[in-house]
Design brief:
By secondary structure, the protein is mostly helical. The chain has one domain. The protein is 69% helix and 0% strand. Helix 2 runs antiparallel to helix 3. It is elongated, with a radius of gyration of 14 Å.
Length: 91
Amino acid sequence: MYVYVMWRHDEALAEHLRPYTAGALYVRVLTYGVEVLQFVKRYSDAVNQLKQLIGQNVYHLEYRGRWFDRLALNLDYHLKQPVQVFLSPSL
């Protein structure tokens, strides 16, 4: 419940103020977490994390291109599921 209230509050903020909120920091940490998961070759967990990051539309929208790129690379090259690149539900 608290996360939802925080997200709704941050959504009402001006876009230039959102990078300084706790939710934006959390999204940055999750982005670095994706890199760690890929480093230890846990690509399916990284794909799930990337889908969650792409699914939100409040914080760090400028990272979406990077997230889509990593999602496509993980699905196509590492997990050998090229069709899933086009069928991902949150895309």
